[in-house]
């Protein structure tokens, strides 16, 4: 029984009224019948009346009359309930044949029901407009506005073009001199917010993306904060892009400080390397006459290994600087051949000791480039080191350069194991190591990452062509000096790209002696 | 004036001995100090032709020694060449400040004794640094 009843429960507001009315009517009629029967029985029992036909007629007439009156009464008394229900049915949006009560109708005005109906309709209207306002960022309703003002999270509403429509107090923004509100976030990894929004505009209707560890300022600046953030995109909505940011500085900052640890660790590593390289140098000279061919070869291997160790420490330091955006290049006029000269002995030794043929040929008429000698020599050294690593015993590694428009293109080609296309796209990522190399070749996978960073800091590009089993060619571009000289001089104070003015002589640049 | 006397301020015994040995072999007069205070005192007491200056030193950092010698109104060692030799990866600002008052700034790990001798030869042929601090 109970189950049946619950199944019959009205699922819709409009069903309530007919059901209520049915019950009320049934109850009234039953009560009238019961009342009449009771009175009739009492009259007969006390002998106040005889069960004669006139008596029965009277009883039935009274019953019929009172039922009629009661039906009228029930209808009258429940009218307000009927009106309220149909008003609510209308507001709820349920389909209904009943016309909703009009609060301006005369009889409502007369009986004072008008304010009740008006209140119901008003409440519904407020609810609707509250929903509308929530979509209009500039005037949030009171509660929402209080929440946004006081929360520790950052909220922003943007257009797909990254125009800031709304930013709460914790959102990392500043107003630039033109009066535009600009987002203070540095996206380290792809996609950046800009990339993502561009992609959304082209391909998405609704999208969401989360970034972790996004800072508002570069390391070392005051008030640096680090956030995790989520962006949602809804095409065509008034709040097309919503950013939510949660500050995680306390969690992430210590790890950033650890990066300084790298500078100290490198200092410790370089101490023994200095001694090893130094004494190898001394021993090489002093034992030259007494060592036989084999022993000389062993000594060479020691020298090569110590030199490589030293380059790796430089790679780690550079990568750490680059990650902290402290990698600076000091561009000056230089030639590829002169840059290579600073590492040629080392490279030749590396190639010979591992049985590779290293051929280096730069055209005589190659124009000068704008380069940081120490950094570019590290790039060359990394590329040659890789070529040696990933080629076969007796293989040829050739280093060449060509003049192409406003660039000089430097190529390092090997005929080694090569790579499939799927590997190439990840190659310049930090700590990435190719499919096979994990087991067979030692290394950190940091060399190409830092090489890319250095080349790009020069305004150049680095890339690779490779075929599995045939070898790889790494190429990078550097701008021809004459093409960028003016721009570099103009940038002198920007500390991004500097020409090193060299009146005190070449020796100011310590990188001269790298490699 | 060709370089003849050299003060080496270096706390790592192996590195110090290595440079001193090679420099002496090459015919230079070399004094070697292992801590920053002794180094500064020696530099002020005797007019060396060249000072090889480490940065991470006990008692007194190389940066402080250089500042004490050349950072004031007066250059206390006008006749002396200074070569900063460090394995510490300084930030650009500190390095620029030291380079300004030095004739060379070298990473030790890159400088074998043979290369050091070549550097000293080159310095002989260069005009001295002109500190303007």
Notes on the structure:
The complex is a heterodimer of chains A (515) and B (133). Chain A is 50% helix and 17% strand. Chain A has helices spanning 2-8, 13-45, 53-77, 79-92, 106-111, 114-135, 142-150, 193-203, 249-286, 293-323, 336-353, 373-389, 421-424, 437-440, 447-457, 481-490, and strands spanning 154-158, 164-167, 173-175, 181-183, 206-215, 226-234, 241-247, 329-334, 357-361, 369-371, 396-404, 407-414, 462-467, 471-479, 497-499.
Summary keywords:
heterodimer; A: 515 residues; alpha+beta; 5-stranded mixed sheet; 15 strands; disordered C terminus; B: alpha/beta; 5 strands; globular
What's the helical proportion of residues of chain A? 40-55%
pLDDT averaged residue by residue of chain B: 88
Q: Which descriptor suits the 3D outline of chain A?
A: rod-shaped
Number of strands of chain A: 15
| Largest interface, Cβ cutoff 8 Å | A-B, 30 and 34 residues
Largest sheet of chain A: 5 strands, antiparallel
In summary, what is this structure?
Chain A has helices at residues 2-8, 13-45, 53-77, 79-92, 106-111, 114-135, 142-150, 193-203, 249-286, 293-323, 336-353, 373-389, 421-424, 437-440, 447-457, 481-490; strands at 154-158, 164-167, 173-175, 181-183, 206-215, 226-234, 241-247, 329-334, 357-361, 369-371, 396-404, 407-414, 462-467, 471-479, 497-499. Chain A is of the alpha+beta class.
SSE diagram, text form:
The complex is a heterodimer of chains A (515) and B (133).
Chain A: H1 2-8, H2 13-45, H3 53-77, H4 79-92, H5 106-111, H6 114-135, H7 142-150, E1 154-158, E2 164-167, E3 173-175, E4 181-183, H8 193-203, E5 206-215, E6 226-234, E7 241-247, H9 249-286, H10 293-323, E8 329-334, H11 336-353, E9 357-361, E10 369-371, H12 373-389, E11 396-404, E12 407-414, H13 421-424, H14 437-440, H15 447-457, E13 462-467, E14 471-479, H16 481-490, E15 497-499
Parallel strand pairs in A: 8-15, 9-11
Antiparallel strand pairs in A: 1-2, 1-7, 3-4, 5-6, 6-7, 8-10, 11-12, 12-14, 13-14
Helix pairs in contact in A: 2-3, 2-4, 4-6, 9-10, 10-11, 10-15, 11-12, 12-15
Chain B: E1 5-9, H1 13-25, E2 29-33, H2 36-45, E3 50-53, H3 62-70, E4 81-86, H4 92-100, E5 104-107, H5 113-124
Parallel strand pairs in B: 1-2, 1-3, 3-4, 4-5
Helix pairs in contact in B: 1-5, 2-3
């Amino acid at each position: 029984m109970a189950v049946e009843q619950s199944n019959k429960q009205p699922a819709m507001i409009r069903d309530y009224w007919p059901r209520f009315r049915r019950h009320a009517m049934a109850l009234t009629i039953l009560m009238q019948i019961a009342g009449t029967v009771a009175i009739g029985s009492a009259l007969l029992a006390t002998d106040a009346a005889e069960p004669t036909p006139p008596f029965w007629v009277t009883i039935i007439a009274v019953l019929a009359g009172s039922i009629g009156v009661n039906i009228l009464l029930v209808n009258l008394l429940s009218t307000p309930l009927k009106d309220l229900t149909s008003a609510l049915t209308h507001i709820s949006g349920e389909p209904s044949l009943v016309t909703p009560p009009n609060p301006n109708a005369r009889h409502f005005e007369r009986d004072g029901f008008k304010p009740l109906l008006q209140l119901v309709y008003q409440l519904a209207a407020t609810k609707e407009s509250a929903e509308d306002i929530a979509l209009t960022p500039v005037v949030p309703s009171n509660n929402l506005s209080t929440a946004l003002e006081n929360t520790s999270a950052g909220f922003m509403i943007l257009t797909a073009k990254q125009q800031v429509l709304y930013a709460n107090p914790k959102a990392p923004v500043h107003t630039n001199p033109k009066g535009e509100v600009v987002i203070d976030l540095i996206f380290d990894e792809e996609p950046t917010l800009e990339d993502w929004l561009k992609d959304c505009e082209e391909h998405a209707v609704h999208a969401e993306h989360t970034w972790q560890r996004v800072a508002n300022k570069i390391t070392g600046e005051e008030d640096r904060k680090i956030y995790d953030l989520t962006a949602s995109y809804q095409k065509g909505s008034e709040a097309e892009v919503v950013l939510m940011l949660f500050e995680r500085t306390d969690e992430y900052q210590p790890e950033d400080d650890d990066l300084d640890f790298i500078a100290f660790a490198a200092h410790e590593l370089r101490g023994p390397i200095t001694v090893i390289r130094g004494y190898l140098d001394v021993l090489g000279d002093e034992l030259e006459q007494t060592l036989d061919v084999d022993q000389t070869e062993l000594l060479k291997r020691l020298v090569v290994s110590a030199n490589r160790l030293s380059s790796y420490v430089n790679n780690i330091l550079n990568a750490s600087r680059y990650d902290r955006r402290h990698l600076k290049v000091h561009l000056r006029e230089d030639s590829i051949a002169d840059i290579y000269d600073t590492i040629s002995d080392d490279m030749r030794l590396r190639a010979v000791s591992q049985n590779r043929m290293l051929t280096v040929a730069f055209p005589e008429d190659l124009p000068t480039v704008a380069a940081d000698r120490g950094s570019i020599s590290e790039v060359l050294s990394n590329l040659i080191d890789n070529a040696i690593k990933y080629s076969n015993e007796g293989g040829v590694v050739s280093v060449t350069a060509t003049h192409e428009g406003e660039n000089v293109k430097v190529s390092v080609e090997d005929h080694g194991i090569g790579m499939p296309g799927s590997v190439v796209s990840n190659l310049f990522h930090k700590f990435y190591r190719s499919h096979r190399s994990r087991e067979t070749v030692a290394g950190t996978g940091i060399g190409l990452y830092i090489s890319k960073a250095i080349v790009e800091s020069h305004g150049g590009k680095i890339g690779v062509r490779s075929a599995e089993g045939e070898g790889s060619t790494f190429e990078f571009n550097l701008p021809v000096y004459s093409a960028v000289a003016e721009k570099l001089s103009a940038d002198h104070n920007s500390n991004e790209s500097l020409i090193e003015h060299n009146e005190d002589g070449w020796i100011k640049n310590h990188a001269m002696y790298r490699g | 004036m060709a370089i003849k006397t050299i003060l080496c301020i270096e706390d790592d015994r192996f590195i110090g001995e290595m440079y001193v040995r090679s420099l002496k072999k090459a015919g230079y007069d070399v004094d070697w100090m292992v801590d920053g205070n002794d180094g500064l005192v020696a530099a002020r007491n005797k007019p060396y032709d060249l000072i090889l200056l480490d940065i991470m030193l006990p008692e007194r950092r190389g940066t402080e020694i250089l500042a004490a010698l050349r950072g004031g109104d007066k250059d206390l060692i006008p006749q002396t060449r200074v070569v900063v030799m460090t394995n510490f990866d300084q930030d650009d600002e500190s390095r620029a400040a030291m380079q300004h008052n030095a004739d060379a700034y070298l990473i030790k790990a890159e400088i074998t004794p043979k290369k050091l001798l070549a550097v000293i030869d080159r310095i002989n042929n260069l005009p001295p640094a002109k500190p303007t601090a």
